[in-house]
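User: Can you help me understand a structure? I only have the sequence.
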Amino acid sequence: MDQSLSPAVGRISSSAIRELLALVDRPGVISLAGGLPSAGHFPVEQTIEAVGDLLRDDRGALQYSSTEGNAALREWIAAEHGVRPGQVLITHGSQQALDLVARVTLAEGDDVVLADPGYVGAIQALRLSGGRLVALPTDADGLGVDQLAERLRAGLRPRLVYVVPNFHNPTGATLSTARARQLATLADRFGFLIVEDDPYRELRFSGRGPAPFRTLTDAVVSIGTISKVLFPGLRVGWMVAPEWLAPSLALVKQAMDLHTSTLAQRIALHLLTGPDFLTDHIAVLRDHYQSQSAVLMAALEKSFGAELEINRPDGGMFLWGRLRRPGMDTAALLPGAIDRGVAYVPGGAFSVTAPHTDSLRLSFATVAPDDLVEGAGRLAEALSDRPVGLRRPA
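Assistant: Let's start by predicting it. Here is the structure, written out as tokens:
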């Protein structure tokens, strides 16, 4: 039997983050590595009620469904985005939405622009579909759109530009309004499609983000998910696509999985449209993440002083840090950090082309406040020449 595999398999590698999470899942390790939402804020009671109501009153929730998704859920999403329901496709999480866009729009070797460091799931999906990744630097104002403009003037012709406008994973950066407008103008001028992946938009606790790209250009596919607002286990996401693209996306999805889970969609709809729930729930989430972020920021500043440059996000779940001392390698230092009882994700895990050896990502979403403080102290010991030993900053 022929044991050969598709060339696509060789384009991607396992996520270093998933491998790391398995390594640090042991007693005594404070993990600042995970990108998981706060399980303590999952709407468990509301979900139990929703499932009970559906199983008693709606046998259709257990039946096959349409490829495009539940009609009422699509109408709700369309109203939220100011588009027609025909432009909405329900997907198995936002990762499938990204995979679908890549499959439908990319030919082998097509250029795809994204930030470096970048979201690991996007790097994997775009490489799997044969895209040639073109990395651009990112800073506190998000993707380097000025550099993109220079590359376009020099002849670059990407098919897609992938952007996380709010609280980019891993850097936590928000795309500035000026850069968003510039990117939309470039899309219209040079004929590429913007893929707007915005899973953290509702988790903003300060500042203002850019307007949705659909208000700036028609050359955009917007991707969303319930994972960060409700919980990720349902695996319900969506995309809002231009009318010329939506039928092709639905056709390819039909070949992949027929449709997204009917029951999961009905549960999501029940929660999203329930009276007096969503607005209050999001407010609680924002307060939680703001408090968590502030605790970890303060603890890091106290433990590291000027040794660690840290971003200050206006929302989301992550901090991005850069060690200021020359020659630091966060990947090489990670085993020692785990021995000291703290874990993080080395910057190189998010590399497109640049190594990011002096950087790391920290998540404040799921760790108790006292452990965030303790974790910062352990981290400072691990990333310095201080002797081994756990201590809490005075």
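Now, to help you interpret it: Residues 386-394 have pLDDT under 50 and may be disordered. The radius of gyration is 21 Å. Let me know which part you'd like to focus on.
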